[in-house]
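Input record, target 12 of the design panel.
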């Protein structure tokens, strides 16, 4: 399967946006070679601001730029974008509904070598809880490009979570991306698997195996965690027997919680979460090693399905 870099797709899209819209500006917290915001700097140095290791100042400066009709994209590792600058994002950007775009790069466990201090297992929960904030989780490089374009076109605070590693391309170049829309990647009747990010590919793998065992699994890409299409979630689960959620994030406050909130009071279907239990990340020799260690695999999804329904 063809795999591509989400970080490169992000940087390339910023460059194209900068060409088309002179109001696009980019701010970086000393990680441009990793987040790939350096691509924008190479083309438009006068609209690129290296803020150093000062995420709070970066967020506040972006807020000011948005007040003079600029469209600022601020960049750092997800653990710093969402965590270190939380106060400025909440107090200055989100309360005022300012048009600031936040990139959380090397999200989840994808920075496998740097351990818990650099691995964001709680960023979706943090950003999802902030009123007025849109939260996006692309599954691949193609969806990343579409999301970044949509972020630039739509007004308001937005957070995008970018994986550090190359991921399989699962979305079509021809498919229109819309913030808030749910995308069914595989039809099925017995169970619905809601997934995003790297776990979309794991869910599709699991669904194929389950098909051979007599379980028909629908797989839905929930690349917009907020705003969540509540009615769409309800409609997708009407004929099924159970629901599984799969995410590279803590099971506290992430996609699983969002789906459960949407279904609360609407159904009595059993729901099982596949994600990171209440713990931090750790260092490893490879990304796949960490995904296996934390149970973020197709087999973990299959096991979750078998907990709630019998083949």
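The sequence produced for target 12 reads:
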């Amino acid at each position: 399967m063809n795999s591509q870099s989400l970080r490169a797709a992000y940087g390339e899209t910023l460059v194209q946006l900068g060409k088309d819209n002179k109001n696009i500006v980019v701010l970086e917290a000393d990680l441009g070679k990793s987040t790939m915001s350096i691509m924008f700097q190479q083309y438009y140095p006068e609209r690129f601001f290296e803020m150093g290791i000062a995420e709070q100042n970066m967020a506040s400066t972006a807020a000011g730029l948005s007040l003079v009709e600029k469209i600022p994209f601020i960049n750092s590792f997800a653990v710093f974008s969402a965590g270190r600058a939380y106060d400025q994002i909440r107090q200055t950007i989100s309360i005022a509904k300012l048009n600031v775009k936040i990139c959380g790069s090397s999200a989840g466990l994808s920075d496998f070598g740097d351990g818990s201090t650099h691995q964001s297992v709680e960023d979706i929960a943090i950003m999802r809880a902030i009123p007025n904030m849109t939260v996006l989780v692309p599954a691949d490089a193609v969806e990343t490009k579409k999301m970044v374009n949509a972020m630039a076109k739509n007004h308001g605070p937005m957070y995008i979570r970018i994986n550090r590693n190359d991921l399989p391309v699962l979305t079509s170049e021809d498919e229109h991306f819309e913030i808030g829309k749910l995308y069914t990647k595989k039809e099925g009747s017995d169970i619905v698997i809601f997934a995003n990010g790297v776990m979309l590919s794991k869910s599709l793998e699991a669904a194929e195996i389950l098909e051979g065992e007599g379980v028909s699994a629908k797989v839905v890409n929930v690349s917009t965690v907020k705003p969540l299409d509540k009615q769409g979630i309800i409609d997708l689960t009407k004929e099924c027997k159970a629901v599984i959620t799969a995410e590279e994030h803590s099971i506290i406050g992430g996609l699983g919680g969002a789906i459960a909130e949407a279904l609360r009071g609407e159904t009595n279907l059993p729901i099982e979460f596949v994600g990171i239990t209440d713990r931090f990340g750790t260092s490893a020799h490879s990304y796949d090693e960490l995904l296996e260690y934390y149970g973020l695999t197709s087999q973990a999804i299959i096991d979750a399905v078998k907990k709630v329904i019998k083949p």
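The chain has two domains: 3-168, 183-305.
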